[in-house]
UniProtKB/TrEMBL annotation, chain A:
InterPro entries according to UniProt: BP-dependent_transpt_permease, MetI-like, MetI-like_sf, OppC_N
Protein name, entry field: Peptide/nickel transport system permease protein
A Pfam family it matches: OppC_N
Family classification: Belongs to the binding-protein-dependent transport system permease family.
Gene Ontology CC, one term: plasma membrane
Spans traversing the lipid bilayer: 27-46, 90-111, 123-144, 150-170, 205-230, 257-282
Domain ABC transmembrane type-1: 88-279
Organism domain of life: Bacteria
Lineage, uppermost ranks: Bacteria, Bacillati, Actinomycetota, Actinomycetes, Pseudonocardiales
GO biological process: transmembrane transport
Automatic annotation (TrEMBL), chain B:
Domain ABC transporter residue range list: 7-246, 272-514
Compartment annotation: Cell membrane
Biological source species: Umezawaea tangerina
Membrane topology qualifier: Peripheral membrane protein
Protein known as: Peptide/nickel transport system ATP-binding protein/peptide/nickel transport system ATP-binding protein
Family, as annotated: Belongs to the ABC transporter superfamily.
InterPro entries: AAA+_ATPase, ABC_Ni/Peptide_Import, ABC_transporter-like_ATP-bd, ABC_transporter-like_CS, Oligopep_ABC_C, P-loop_NTPase
PANTHER family referenced in this protein's UniProt entry, alphabetically: DIPEPTIDE TRANSPORT ATP-BINDING PROTEIN DPPD (PTHR43297:SF2), OLIGOPEPTIDE TRANSPORT ATP-BINDING PROTEIN APPD (PTHR43297)
Superkingdom of origin organism: Bacteria
Keywords: ATP-binding, Cell membrane, Membrane, Nucleotide-binding, Transport
GO MF entry, a single one: ATP hydrolysis activity
Entry GO CC: plasma membrane
Alphabetical list of PROSITE patterns matching this protein: ABC_TRANSPORTER_1, ABC_TRANSPORTER_2
SMART domains the record matches: AAA
Amino acid sequence: MTSIVWQRRRAAVGSTWREFTRNRGGLAGLVVLGVVVVLALLAPLVTDASGLDVTKAAGQRWQSPSAEFWFGTDHTGRSVLLLTWWGSRISLLIGLTATVLSVAIGTLVGVTAAHFGGWLSAGLMWVTNFFLVLPSLVLAIALSTVLPRGIGTIVLAIGVTSWASTARLVRAQTLSVEARPFIERAKVLGGGHVHVIGRHVLPAVLPLVFVNTTLTVANAIVAEATLSFLGLGDPSMVSWGSMLRAANLHGAVSQRAWWFLLPPGLGVVVIVLAFTLVGRALETVLNPRLRGDR
Amino acid sequence: MSPLLELRGLGVHYRTDRGEVAAVRDVDLTLEAGQTLGLAGESGCGKSTVAMSVLRLLPKSARVEGEILLDGEDVTTMSWGRLRAVRWAQASVVFQGAMHALNPVRRVGDQIAEPIRLHGGKAKVSDLLDQVELPAAKARSYPHELSGGQKQRIMIAMALACDPRLVIADEPTTALDVIVQAQVLGVLSRLVAEQGIGLVMISHDLSVLASTCDRLAVMRHGGIVEEGPAREVIASPTHPHTRALAAAFPVVGDPAFRQVEPDEVRESSPLLRAEALSVDYRGRGGVVHAVKGVDLEIGSGEIVALVGESGSGKTTTARTLLGLRAPTSGRVLFEGEELPRSAKGLREYRRQVQLVLQDPTSALNPRHSVYESVAEGLRIHKVPGDEAALVADALAKAELRPPESFFPVLPHELSGGQRQRVVIAGALALGPRLLVADEPVASLDASVRGEILALLLGLRRELGLAALIITHDLGLAWSIADRVAVMHEGVLVEQGAVDQVLLDPRHEYTRRLLAAVPSTTP
């Protein structure tokens, strides 16, 4: 019996994929993402991490792009290409883990608030609104100054401050699903909370959560760059934000060292754009109402 | 003189992803002033498309062929300006679903006046309200302050605002209760007689059309299958589809429609009993007493119909009997024992009493296959045994055969009647003793209503399954119930055997209900 279910799911995934590939922007975004992720994973195998060490810098300070250093060198003589390459690892890692944390909290809060109602819902929505009105950057800065420096802190700071909009979205969707008569039918059949949420609510809400995830990743990567730029990141790690911070601190502008500013900046733009394109494409695939004439 | 409306070889095609779909094919109709024409058919037969094509109100994806002559002038070739002048001034529409066709944030008087302002007419809103038998003061109301019947009359007043010669009414009474329906139909008939306008009325309910229309056209799959004087079409239908439509609306009191054998053997041990049941809702406007002291008994193997208008508390009663809502006072007894309040106890109770909802389309999770939907209850209760065999058995009992072929099917691939059978199969899988069916056929097409009702009767015969059927349709109660309980404003005003209550009503309200039922035998 389960084979039939799996067959249908496979067919559903197949048709979603076909629909997705018809969206050129989304496909381009996916290809860019794939390339960036593969490069980030391959970095330790292809390049030598010792080049990141200031004491082992290979080049002169502020060297402009050349055949040896494609993107030039920074204020300590390190290769900007190498820094950007390794920086993508941290940006992606923090972006993805912070998103998982944020979406998980948001989904949990949203579904719980909508399903149970009453004072629990009121309390949860009160907390959600608190996080919505508070400027999340200020809160994240406060959190990362209080907690010890490190990747975990940044992930926590971004994840804990950015779940509120997901929670609202999930709550709205859950409410609309729970109003449908098949939920009442499930209750009459004897289904409890776990059954109703697990079998009916979550499968209907998850596509939306999935779309929301890809869009949240983009925000998380920008947030990470912002925090690192403000000097709240892990100082021992190279990320795109910390590169921009170094460029700013050591006067890359007055040195006219555009090659130190552009690669990390463009890196953030390209990744964010790619995630957004994929998210928008998924949105149109999973929500047919958005599908207009292309 | 040319007739008021003449359709010649009308065809409408919709462009879709799957190519062109023909919605209407080769329809010829004529209507003279002062006449009423009924257009009957099931959902998707193209009757609304025909109506909307008269004023060119179809979506852009539609391609119209043939001629639509309004007073001898072809609508399909009219210029945009001419069409605007014709719309409402010559022909107007009473749209389907008055609940949604009115702007909720504007007073109804302003909405009636809108076409008058646009066309520079001289009619007065108060006169129009008078024509539809509403007091002039209602012009200052907002739509939500009016009842369904009042809103429908506002829609009619709006349609009459510019003295049109033709009015098209698309399902004008579908969402209304019988008594209100009779009033609205009365208003429409009187207007046709007094003002000599032509009326095209669209409905799926032959009895509604029979009581108001001179002529009747029955549509199926986009074409007209039968046309003629209303009485003749209904009295002696020639096309099998017309016969099916006529048979779907049972006539109260006609023994031909009574499907229950009078001498059928029945046990009389009480299965479910409500004693002095009261339910209150705490709303914004204070406490609402939805159900007031209801005593109701359903014997095992008995079919009881709970009849009443919308808002009479019949659905609340059913939900309380199912244990979905706790009674404010009074109690519900199942086999002599009070309903448990605990979650575990209620779960056990659910194996005995099951619910069939009104609209099978929304009662099935669109992502679950038939197999999963039917197996849902089995999995919740961890029923021992071969799951696939139990599902197949339940589907077979609901007359979906061969059951295995339905396993992987998703709800949207089924017809409305098949979906309702799946819902029933899902309930049967648990082997209940009582089915509570909330308007089980109200959202189904006429031709499948009879099948679902026959299925309920067959289940009673074979499995001894009792049923509480909640309905606003007295004909349905006449057709399959053993006993009828009539509910009005939260109170059971009358209950007893079907023949007794429906043929010799004691209570004044039951009499009013019966008098309002439109009849196919005028």
